[in-house]
Amino acid sequence: KKKIAVMTSGGDSPGMNAAVRAVVRTGIHYGCDVFAVYEGYEGLLKGGEYLKKMEWEDVRGFLSIGGTLIGTARCLEFRERWGRKQAAANLISEGIDALIVCGGDGSLTGADLFRSEWPSLVEELVKDGKFTTEQVEPFKNLTIVGLVGSIDNDMAGTDSTIGAYSALERICEMVDYIDATAKSHSRAFVVEVMGRHCGWLALMAGIATGADYIFIPERAVPHGQWQEELKEVCQRHRDKGRRNNTVIVAEGALDDKLNPVTANDVKDVLIELGLDTKVTILGHVQRGGTAVAHDRWLATLQGVDSVKAVLEMTPETPSPLIGILENKIIRMPLIESVKLTKSVAAAIESKDFDKAISLRDTEFIE
Ligand code: F6P
Fold first, then answer.
1. CA of 193 to the centre of ligand 1 (A)
2. Which residues of the sequence carry a binding annotation for ATP (predicted)?
3. Neighbours of 154 (CB within 10 A)
4. C-alpha to C-alpha distance for 255 and 227, rounded to whole angstroms
């Protein structure tokens, strides 16, 4: 019987539970045993009760709940070879040789490295006397399939990541709340949103709420000049009768000399314009709450496909990452997608903003 483990890793995102539910139930449907790894890679290292065999009803109610019910953790030990060896031993003890990981680029890179090292880790475990050659015989290879859970929508090659639309919805709700009080006092509000290296949340929230101005890392504003432009735009909107101003700043926003542009920098400029200005840093409220419909169906369809991918893969198949392109669930090469995602950050650092955008828009055709 095929034994598959599913885990969530890195920052949580709404829809991760829906992904776990889909993996558990699809696995059971295809006659597999499915285990949930609790607390991310930390649970993989601890083994035992952290690897729990899941039944159909264990994931009841998971579809809509935000965060991750099986937990996540940042695990430094998994970055070390000895940690991965320990994790391999725990998986073999349970008879598991396939792992579906829902997480961001860091977690997925770790998973693929684990897969490439697996044969040598198993060999070492035999040498250490932990298992006999016969015991490890069925566990020659580890299968890894990735699902992207990230509110930032920062993975190259896929249109949306699990959690991004829920976070976007939360931001828009909060900006709507702010608008009511801002208009009452004729105030300007600078709203800082998440998205470490990616301006998707800021850009989409700005469009959806009719913001006056948006700062994102991929379109760095001209150093020393953005201040005047910002003032001019906000004043123009005021002259047209707008009673409030909304400026959305991505937490990773930059100017074209790569200096950070912070919500407070923006506030100072608006104060110079004579506007009564407040800063709201939305923080982790963006990552909380229930999953919106988009994230529920995305995670469900991708979770189903991740199990199918496990069952179809051979030891030669490169680890796939399940994505979505033009409304179709696709499989992309995990390592290439992660590499491209990293090159986006590098392109921004070398001020090649167009390249950054086109890299993230790379399409992988099956
Ligand atoms: O990767 C998602 C994200 O929400 C980023 O936008 C943000 O910078 C980061 O996680 C914060 O994560 P944490 O609070 O877990 O360190």
1. 11
2. 11, 74-75, 104-107
3. 24
4. 11
